[in-house]
Amino acid sequence: MIDNIARIGFTVILLAAACFPAAAQQAASVSISVKSHRFQPAEIHAPAKVPIELHVKNLDSTPMEFESVSLRVEKVVTGNSEGIIRLRPLEPGRYNFFDDFHQETNGVLVVR
Amino acid sequence: MINARSARATIFFASFFTATGFVAYAQDNNPVVYRDIETKYIFGFTEGSGIGLEGEKEFSLESVARFGKRDGRYWASESKLEYEFTPNQYVQFELGPLVSVHNIQNVTDLDNRNQVAFAGVFGEIRYLLLDRSPSLPLAITLSAEPEWRRIDETSGERVTNFELELKLNADLELIQNRLYFGANLLYEPEATHDPDHIGAGWEKESTGGVSAALSYRIVPPVFVGAELWYLRHYDGIWFNTYAGDAVYLGPTLYVQLGPKVFMTAAWNTQVRGHDVDVPGSTLNLAEFSRQRGKLKLAVEF
Question: What is the CATH number assigned to the segment(s) A25-111?
Answer without folding.
Answer: 2.60.40.420
